[in-house]
Structures are given as structure tokens and as C-alpha cells.
Amino acid sequence: xxxNMDDLDFCLSSHPQSILEGLHxxxxxxxxxxxTLSAGGRDFxxxxxxxxxxxxxxxxxxxxxxxxSIAARVELHDVDPDVLATLLHFAYTGRLTINQGNVEELIxxxxxxxxxxxxxxxxxxxxxxxxxxxxxxIQEFGEIHGCPEVVAKARxxxxxxxxxxxxxxxxxxxxxxxxxxxxxxxxxxARNDRAWAEAAxxxxxxxxxxxxxxxxxxxxxxxxxxxxESYLTGSLLKDPLVQDSLDCKQLLxxxxxxxxxxxxxxxxxxxxxxxxxxxxxVLFVIGGRSLDDSDDDDDDEDEEDGERDPRIHPRNxxxxxxxxxxxxxxxxxxxxNKWGYSVVSLNNDVYVTGGSRGSxxxxxxxxxxxxxxxxxxxxxxxxxxxRPRTNHTSATLNGEIYVIGGTTMDIxxxxxxxxxxxxxxxxxxxxxxVSNFTATAxxxxxxxxxxxxxxxxxxxxxxxxxxxxxxxxxxxPFIPKYLSSPRSVSMDGVIYLIADNTKKVYLYDPDANxxxxxxxxxxxxxxxxxxxxxxxxxQNRSFTEHP
Length: 547
Hints:
It is a single chain. The chain has 3 domains: 106 residues, Potassium Channel Kv1.1, Chain A (2-Layer Sandwich), CATH 3.30.710; 87 residues, Alpha Horseshoe (Serine Threonine Protein Phosphatase 5, Tetratricopeptide repeat); 245 residues, Neuraminidase (6 Propeller). Strand 1 and strand 2 form a beta hairpin. Helix 2 packs across helix 3, helix 6 runs parallel beside helix 8 and helix 15 runs antiparallel to helix 17. By secondary structure, it is an alpha+beta fold. 31% of the residues lie in helices and 24% in strands. The protein is globular, with a radius of gyration of 29 Å. The longest helix is centred in the middle third of the chain and has 15 residues. It has 19 helices and 26 strands. The strands form 7 sheets. Strands 25-4-5-6-26 form a 5-stranded antiparallel sheet, with no helix packed on it. The protein has a 4-stranded antiparallel sheet with strand order 7-8-11-12, with no helix packed on it. A 4-stranded antiparallel sheet has the order 13-14-15-16, with no helix packed on it. Keywords: Kelch repeat, Repeat. This is BTB domain-containing protein. Pfam families: BACK, BTB, Kelch_1.
């Protein structure tokens, strides 16, 4: 007789997987299956229960009063047998390979058969493949197959990268109504005001005979009043397409005449309704001391007199226009006393994630996420992060925000934010723990560069592939030694790396997998820095300027 002992809770962790694998192996034995799917002349023995758990389509079929609910054989019409085999393999194993060759058929069939997990994976794959050469095609595909998240991301990419998109064949193949909708969209961004007119001319030239009749309508959407007169008369008016259209010539002559008749002191922006949307690179500053130089003297006097009102906060947000060499005030960031947050730009807006509140003796991290909407000039909160974070790093990749580290866990926790559905999701953690690190996106992947917070501990380079949600450690020659508080930025397909314990600037080329030294800081001592640059579409009259 067994003597009295505590209960034993036994759990075989491999049991669920082994059961699935066992059921999969039994599909080849007719005695152990209860339904056979047929598609394209091929038969697929399987189990109703597995199908019902993975597909709402089959759950409804087998649980309703349909003939298929009791039939031993179910014929699926207009279904590719290879794609069906892939879906069934996923149902039994949870594994799936998505590539450029099968993603379109997979998303079609998974949508029809309601394999929602597969459809979501395909949708995410498509979103990560968006670039200037295919965003229009992916947008159209998403519209046809009811993938609003794909449509939104492809559309956003088009509006933010219009000049690059118009250099590719898909742009030339647009229907007229599609091009009109694009040119009308107030969110369309370009670095050059000529982009609208150049796009219209390029599109018409591709099929001159059939499209020339649309040119007047397209040029009316080209923001002509904001183009310099030298361009209107010296280039656009002399273009052969314009010369062949009386309506176009009349339109341009009217615009030039209006520009010449503008009274002194009346701005063109005040005369014409459309406003330019060209972008400028600016230096965005948030937090810290006041942006007003005069505040320093006033603060000293107030402190001496003991009259400073603690409820009055200094201005804490603005940007510097390097071309005009002017500071511009922005609405204050609402959390005046927060510190340790991370700032990143996405879709021409600015996001502030996490940070700590409280006194020096009692602080706590937050999950807050703030968004500064550049077009509207205001701060709003969006979905909070899943983990509280302080002193973390953030980067943008494929239209999403990735936040890395900043938690108290013994692993580097990562999550990403999708602005089109306003939600956060956990991401696979890096393979190696680091606490002194920086991150940046380059060529469609996320690179994490850092080390443990131990002096002279060598740097580790880790790479995240969003398509397969997986990290890898990259072994590359000449990787820098220990760097304190590293900061990185990606530009022109390479990564630049700096730190506060050296004046050296390092460059990493992902294609060549090679590091090299490229320059030295000669302007300032690199102590306690964190510069942040982003593209911003703004109108000067909207902000207070400071020389």
C-alpha cells in the first residue's frame, strides 16, 4: 500500500505536439480517418475535428444540416490541390512556408476556406514585401481579396514615397481614376512641388494617344500655383504634351497670369486654396530644458526671489529647420516630468513610448504611447504597450514600430506596433541578452548592436527577420570593441554607429557583412547625446519661430 504523499501533478509537455504528429501520420491509413477532401483530382484523407478547429468554413460545414456533414467524401471546386495540401499540413503541424510563388494563392484559398491564422500570416508577409515597385499591385490585390490591413499599409507607402513609386512600371499602368484619386489625396507627400506635374506628364507619355485627353484634368490637380514661374514658362509650358493641348496651354497661361497679378504683400498660399505638401528634414527635440533662450535668465531671477510657480512648465517640444536655420515651437509633450522614454517617427508623425514617472526615490515605468499628429499639430494617446519600459530603444521597420528592452526581465523583450490597427504584439526576443545597445532598421531587417553592461565586453550584432519572426547572430569581421551608450542610424543601405566613449564613427554594410571606420567627430564632444531626425510636412505659418 502506498503511504500518504502529496499529489503529483504530471504534465508531458510534448504531448500536444506528439498527438498532432500522430494524427498526421494516421491520415495515410483509411481506418483512422473520417473524411476525404478532393480537389483537382487529388484526395486528402483527414479528420473532421482537426479541420473544424482550424477552419470556420469546415466547422460550419460539419456542424450544420448539410450533406457534407455526414459525407465520407467532400469535393472542393476551384481549389488548387497544392495549396490545399499546404493548408492541411499547417492544420496538423502548425508549420507553413510562405514565399513569393505561393502567397497569392494561399491568401485566396485561406480566405475562402476561412483558415484565419494562415490568412493573417500571408497578410503580414505581403505587408513586409511592400516597396516602391509593387505597392500599387499589392494594394489592388488587397482590395480584391478583402485585406483592409494590406490596403492601408500599401496606400500609406504610396503616399509617403510617391516620387519613388512613379519611377516604376506599376505607376504607368494605373487607371486614370486611380491616378486622380492619388493626386487628390491631401496626404500625398513629396520633397519637390514639381512631383505632381511630372507624374501626370510621365503617365500620359506612356500611352500618349489614349491618355492625352486626360492631361488637363491631371494638371489641375498638380498644384500649379505653387510652382515657380520659371518652371511653368520655361519647362512645363514648352513640353510637347502641353503644346499639343489647347486646354493645357490655356490653364498654364491663366496660372502664370494670376501669379503675375498677385498684389505686393499677398502670399500665393493666401490666394490659392491648395497648400504645398513638400517635405523637409528637421531636427525634432522633446523634453529637457526650455526652448526659449530667455527662460534661463528668468529662471534664475525667479529662483532667487522664490516666486517661481511650480505649475508653470517650460516649453518642451519643437523642431529645428536646418535650411531656414530657425527653431519652431510645437505643442508641448503632455508628460512634463516623464523621463527614460523613446522617440521615433513613422508615417511623418512622432511617437513617444514608455518612460518613467515619480520622484527619485519612487519611480515606475509606464506603457503609455503618445503620438504627435504632424498634420493636425496635436498630441494623442494610442494603444499602450504590452510591457512597461524605461530606457528602451525604438525603431521603425516596414511601417511598424519596434520597441526593444527597457523591462526588468532577464531577456531583451521586444514588441511591435501596427498603426493601421492600433495594436501591439509581442515579437521573438533576441538570442543574446544585451543591456547596452542600439537598434535600427536597414534593408528590410532590424539590427540590434550592443553588449552587456560590463566594461570592455565585445559588441554583438543580431539581426531580426520580420517575415519569419526570427533572430540570428551575425558574425562579421572588424566589429567594433566595447562602445558605451551606442547610437545608430541607417542611411543609403548602410548603418552608422557612434558612442559616447569615442570620437570614431563606424559603418556597417549588411550586404558585404563588413565594418569599417569612416570618420571622427570634430564638432562636439560626444557626451550625453541623442539626436533625432525625421521628415516633416509643415507650413511655416503654423508655428512660432525662433532665430
